[in-house]
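Hello Y.,

Per our agreement to keep a running log of every chain we model this quarter, I'm adding this entry. I've kept the format consistent with earlier entries: sequence first, then predicted structure.
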Amino acid sequence: MGAGYLQPRLDVADVFTAKIRCADFHIGHSSRKGGTGRALVDATTELHVNYAGDWTKTVIGGQVTTPSSRAIKENISDLSRQEAFTILEGLNPVKFNLKTDASKLLHLGFISEDAPDMVASEDRKAITQAHIIAALTRVVKEQHVALASLSERVDQLDARR
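Predicted structure for the entry above:
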């Protein structure tokens, strides 16, 4: 190890929680395509799964959950109808293959550099799926209200006949 290189350190707390302190933490076996880097927790607050782009099929099994309790949030306000519509209007669904995938498995998604700010990461290299789901939920709820209103008007017109 060269000068200035910090040796990774593993601290195990009294409650048997392992804490690994390092600049970047790569997960993956070196014998796999792309070596380590299959997942990366970087020095910020982001976890990048499939960091090296060498997983071409299902990466995660089971459920992926995101903490969402009111207890950890502040400044809570509704996503407006206009904000939600603006997000969806700014998204361009595309189909693509990953450059590192020899089997050329078809994917559907978005290009983060082209996505609205509210759904793109700060460095514009990733998309926050939960933000898209929130926008979709608001738009679907708005469309449900509009559809119910139109259905009621059709019923009233039919009753007049």
